[in-house]
Amino acid sequence: MTTRETALRVALVAMGLVTTLPALALITSYALEWTYGVIDPEPMTLALLQHRGMLQLLLGAALVWAAFFPPARRAAAIAAVAGKSTFLLLILPDPDLRADLAPFSTVVDLTCIVVLSAYIVWSTSVRVEGSRRA
C-alpha cells in the first residue's frame, strides 16, 4: 500500500468517525447542547435533530466504508461535500444561528469540504487522464 493510499484511508476514517458524532443525539439530548447549543428542545425539534444524527451516522459510515472500498470513494466524497456545504450555507449567514454553533463543527466541516473536494478533483483528473491513454 502506498503512502498516498494510507493517508487517504486515515483521512476518510477520521472524517467518517467525526461525521458520525451527531448520532449521539439518538442516545442523549445533551449531545444537542454541546454541538448545537440546543437545550430542552421541543419534541419536533428533537426528532428532527435526531433524524439528522441518523443521516450523519449513515454519511460517516459511507466515508469509513469508502476508505476500504475505493469504488465508493467519489460517491461518498460528493455526498459529504454536498451535505456539509448545505448545512454551512443554511447556518453561517444567520448571525443568531452561527452564534449557537460550536466552532469545532464549523472547522471540521470546512476541513472535510476542502479535503474531499480536493480528492474529487484529483480523482476526476486521474480518470480523465486514464481515459485519454486508453
Could you characterize the architecture of this molecule?
With 134 residues, the chain is an all-alpha fold. 79% of the residues lie in helices and 0% in strands. It is built from six helices and no strands. The longest helix has 31 residues, at 103-133.
Entry summary:
The protein is mainly alpha-helical.
Question: What multimeric state do the chains show?
Answer: single chain
SS elements, strand count? 0
Low-confidence stretches: none
Query: What helical percentage do the residues reach?
Result: over 70%
- pLDDT averaged over residues: 92
Strand content: under 5%
Q: In this structure, how is the largest beta sheet organized?
A: none
Class from helix and strand fractions: mainly alpha
How many H/I helical runs? 6
Shape: elongated
Order of helices and strands: HHHHHH
How far apart are the first and last residues' alpha carbons, in Å? 25 Å
Radius of gyration: 17 Å
Chart the SSEs and their pairings.
Elements: H1 3-19, H2 30-36, H3 43-68, H4 73-91, H5 95-100, H6 103-133
Helix pairs in contact: 1-3, 3-4, 4-6
Q: Notable features of this structure?
A:
134 residues, mainly alpha, elongated, 0% strand
